[in-house]
Write a sequence for this structure.
């Protein structure tokens, strides 16, 4: 395409842009459709919260998290990874796991202390967006120490959304109003927001490798967890949050060990 006569600001040659494809293939459409479904689930969670149906609101965000875990794997299996899909996924995550949980918690509890509660909700939404922006900024970097060792940097956005709902899980399971205390919920939301943007190493799937001797037990445990989610979903979700929080220090210690091993290897390259 030749430059425009006036050399205007939208001249494609000035920006070095390439012409977009005329349509999406079915292979590229499927993972992006799953991402869009996750975004719709997150937004629907806000709608349920406005109507006071907080159980459905939480479930909608959880479904968004499940879909978010599927879309990337589907894209890799179908060899349909694209920059468009990565950007859409980040935008969807920012809304489904940042904006939606913040508004749900605010409508459920934090609005009782409007100023302090709103700042806590803002912290959760903004920190989720900052985490995703940091992830996008590093996506093309060759040197990523955490990722190369199988760890993540900070708490992932879907996990952060699930953790932020812990007081809500306990409130639904027990019916006790103590779990709805706005000051405590605000502090908890701020803590989760900090964990999402922190630089600490957290366990990723690559770092979680059970020994061969206990793999059958792990499969059985996974089945029991699914059964527990079907029978006692809120208590099970609470237990999953507690287990994850207990694993955070383990991830930090294990990565510190990896760093020491790398430092030792760098100091003695011959050995």
């Amino acid at each position: 395409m030749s430059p425009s006569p006036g050399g205007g600001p939208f001249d494609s040659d000035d920006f070095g842009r390439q012409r977009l494809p005329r349509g999406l293939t079915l292979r590229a459409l499927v993972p992006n459709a799953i991402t869009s479904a996750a975004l719709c689930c997150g937004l629907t969670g806000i709608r349920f919260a406005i109507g006071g149906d907080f159980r459905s609101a939480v479930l909608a965000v959880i479904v968004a998290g499940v879909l978010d875990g599927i879309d990337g794997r589907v894209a890799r299996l179908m060899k349909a990874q694209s920059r468009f899909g990565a950007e859409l996924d980040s935008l969807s995550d920012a809304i489904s796991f940042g904006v939606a949980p913040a508004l749900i918690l605010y409508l459920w509890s934090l609005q009782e202390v409007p100023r302090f509660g709103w700042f806590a909700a803002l912290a959760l939404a903004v920190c989720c967006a900052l985490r995703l922006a940091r992830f996008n900024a590093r996506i093309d970097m060759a040197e990523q120490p955490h990722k190369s060792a199988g760890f993540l940097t900070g708490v992932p956005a879907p996990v952060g959304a699930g953790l932020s709902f812990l007081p809500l899980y306990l409130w639904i399971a027990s019916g006790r109003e103590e779990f709805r205390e706005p000051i405590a919920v605000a502090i908890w939301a701020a803590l989760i927001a900090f964990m999402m943007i922190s630089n600490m190493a957290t366990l990723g799937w690559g770092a979680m490798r059970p020994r061969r001797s206990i793999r059958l037990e792990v499969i059985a445990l996974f089945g029991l967890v699914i059964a527990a989610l079907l029978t006692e979903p809120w208590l099970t979700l609470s237990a999953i949050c507690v287990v994850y929080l207990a694993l955070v220090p383990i991830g930090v210690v294990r990565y510190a060990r990896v760093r020491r091993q790398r430092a030792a290897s760098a100091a003695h390259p011959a050995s």
